[in-house]
Amino acid sequence: MNKKEYHVAIVGATGAVGQKIIHLLEQDQELQFYIKKITLLSSKRSAGKVIKFKGKEVTIQETTELSFEGVDIAFFSAGGEVSKRFAKSAVDGGSVVIDNTSHFRMSKDVPLVVPEVNAHKLREHSGIISVPNCSALQMVTALNPIKKAFGLERIIVSTYQAVSGSGMNAINELMNQSEAMLKGEDITAEILPAKNDKKHFPIAFNVLPQVDVFTENDYTFEEQKMINETKKIMGMPDLKMSATCVRVPVVSSHSESVYIEVEQDVTVGEIKKVLEAAPGVVLQDNPTQQMYPTPLTSAGKKETFVGRIRKDLDLPRGFHLWIVSDNLLKGAAWNSVQIAETMIKLDLL
Amino acid sequence: MNKKEYHVAIVGATGAVGQKIIHLLEQDQELQFYIKKITLLSSKRSAGKVIKFKGKEVTIQETTELSFEGVDIAFFSAGGEVSKRFAKSAVDGGSVVIDNTSHFRMSKDVPLVVPEVNAHKLREHSGIISVPNCSALQMVTALNPIKKAFGLERIIVSTYQAVSGSGMNAINELMNQSEAMLKGEDITAEILPAKNDKKHFPIAFNVLPQVDVFTENDYTFEEQKMINETKKIMGMPDLKMSATCVRVPVVSSHSESVYIEVEQDVTVGEIKKVLEAAPGVVLQDNPTQQMYPTPLTSAGKKETFVGRIRKDLDLPRGFHLWIVSDNLLKGAAWNSVQIAETMIKLDLL
User: Fold this and answer.
1) Which among A29, B3, B60, B61 is least buried, having the fewest CB atoms inside 10 angstroms?
2) pLDDT band for position A2 (50/70/90)?
3) From CA A101, how far away is CA A80, in angstroms rounded?
4) Which CATH class for the B136-327 domain?
């Protein structure tokens, strides 16, 4: 195959997700496309910094309406406000925007895409494609194959989310607090559970049942995002679903304790078979060998890992699963790059 | 009230739970009874060590069949094997045994007691009373008042369990691994997820979806204990219940994401009212103030804390709750001392 070359821009180049995207693009010999040119963009504050890309120094520039000239693909991961402000300029300038923020996700004309699940939606794009919330993303990667095989009626999920979902500052906060607590020193909390909320609580040696701010119905935005986006990605507006989102003192990889009800009588063995054949999914499920996924073993990997699959003890069509994936990779950066790859494969880029 | 005096023995005096019991008994001016004499017992390995009790030095003795002479109340928390070996000797010697291990919990003639829930069962004892598994214990403390008011049909729980549930060695393991990981050093795992299982995995900056060893149906013993004990304590053999038990890098206090279905149409407000009036329960639920319980805020306290109560988004009789309590206090030591207090109040001691 003759791989095409693209000019790629990264908005939010110094952020946790931006850094992972840069790292993935540096290895473009492994991708479906080559990088002809890279433009690294950020806020005024980080502009001027120099980052190495494939051994060459690239200076980060401040994002403006004019940053996107000649850019084929623009990856946005600098927060909803930045996407709101600059995504249209990028599209007008001829770029395809692959947006990692929540800003456009629920817009009717914006496809919300997990390539393994709904790549066909990419054909409907009008310039912007949204990458789902990391917690929803890894869950649908594992559950969509089950839905296709056996139907899906209900999801109840409790999450164990890594701090990197809140960015570099949250990682530093966990590290600094952990070090201070081990030394018996006083600790401060400034970022978690949600940077833009009023109060902040320690995450080191703690868990916080709040990810993002609260909404009017006492669910958090993270919980609402998970629910709404799961329904949109899987095309199931009537799916029954609730979520409890919890932050845990883990750097990378979200874990999820998921209860599902399917529409047919199936066995655990049949579900395992479906997951073994599912794209992007790795089955790690063998209790006698203590085999199951964990954040530490999943971090740095692109797949979604599933284990601890077992029948509910009461409902014959109820099952429990444990789903783990790197929230910065499949949950953000890798899914973004996958979208670009898939669009190229579908001749949309 | 004229408080009576008792000779108390603690089997497992150097363990995580034993230490907490000693601490509670030292403050007997706050209890319903005084300590006349304390006998501290342990394995051969720890015998000879000296512990201060109310300022006086007490030498720990090796547990033998003859250790219980004159002992009124014997608290056991040295593991199931020790309870199996010595509990009967203690009863034969005239002691009432309050056992923190799983050994007798499901025996028909052994009451499994949470004083706020089923104190009346103490009247049926024949020498041994079992303290429930910590995860089940705190959950029933919060759910039994709801059951009494509105009926209870179903529970699905995912836990976030502190390492102290696996003893002092597990606390040290978390601390040592955390320190090593912060320094970028190699880490070793020897205790968690289950000391007597084949493989061990790091818990620092990780979560492990295994607490205790696996059973034949691919649930862990911890999950089965939670389920079986919840049904026994609440007297609900037909309750629908499943559990996923997960270890998190927290020192003390277990958290639980709990989904319930009740038998009547009720509002969140009505559930909150019931919990506000419930013994041993503290409602901490105000999303606009970011008020909810966490392990760090609950550690060292005797109550069970409940927050994040909200209606399921689909089932009108479904609700979600977040339940947190100190696993070594209400989950073990405090519930043990409460059992002794309640027996004294009921004239059973």
Assistant:
1) A29
2) confident
3) 5
4) alpha beta
The 3 state secondary structure assigned to A71-104 is CCEEEECCCHHHHHHHHHHHHHCCCEEEECCCCC
The answer, for B47 touching chain A at a CB cutoff of 8 Å, is no
Residues 108 through 137 of chain B touching chain A, CB cutoff 8 Å: none
Q: Which residue of B has its CA nearest to A319?
A: B242
Q: Is A120 a catalytic residue?
A: no
Q: Is the pLDDT confidence value at A1 over 90?
A: no
Task: Enumerate residue ranges in chain B where pLDDT < 50.
Answer: none
Name the residue of chain B whose CA is nearest to A181's CA: B175
SS3 A134: helix
Q: Is A11 left (phi over 0), alpha (psi -120 to 50) or beta?
A: beta
Please give, rounded to a whole number of angstroms, the shortest distance from the CA of B57 to a CA of chain A: 28
Interface of B with A in 214-273 (CB under 8 A): 214, 217-219, 227, 240-242, 244, 246, 248-251, 255, 257, 259, 268
Query: Among all residues of chain B, which has the CA nearest to that of A208?
Result: B294
Specify the residue for token string 């034949």. B216
Please state which CATH number belongs to domain A136-326: 3.30.360.10
Q: Does any CB of chain B come closer than 8 Å to the CB of residue A171?
A: no
Contact across the interface for A156 and B259, Cβ inside 8 Å: yes
B160-215 pLDDT, tens digit each: 999 999 999 999 999 999 999 999 999 999 999 999 999 999 999 999 999 999 99
CA B209, CA B193: separation in Å to the nearest integer? 8
In the CATH scheme, what is the code of domain B4-132+332-345?
Answer: 3.40.50.720
Contacts of A92 (CB under 8 A, 6+ apart): none
Q: Among this protein's residues, is A23 annotated catalytic?
A: no
Distance from C-alpha of B290 to C-alpha of A212, rounded to nearest angstrom: 11
Query: Right CATH number for A5-132+332-345 from 3.40.50.720, 1.10.8.80, 1.20.1600.10, 3.20.20.80?
Result: 3.40.50.720
The pLDDT tens digits for A158-195 are 999 999 999 999 999 999 999 999 999 999 999 999 99
Packing angle between helix A334-345 and helix A16-26, nearest 10 degrees? 50
Q: What percent of chain A has pLDDT over 90?
A: 99
Question: According to CATH, where is 3.40.50.720 located in chain A?
Answer: 5-132+332-345
Residue ranges, comma separated, of all CATH 3.40.50.720 domains in chain B are 4-132+332-345
Nearest CB to B207; choose among A160, A206, A318: A160
ipTM of the complex, rounded to two decimals: 0.97
What tens digit of pLDDT does each residue of A87-113 get?
999 999 999 999 999 999 999 999 999
Which pLDDT score is estimated for B1?
60
B128-130/B73-76 β-pairing? unpaired
B290 contacts in A (CB within 8 Å)?
A: 193, 197-199, 201, 210, 214
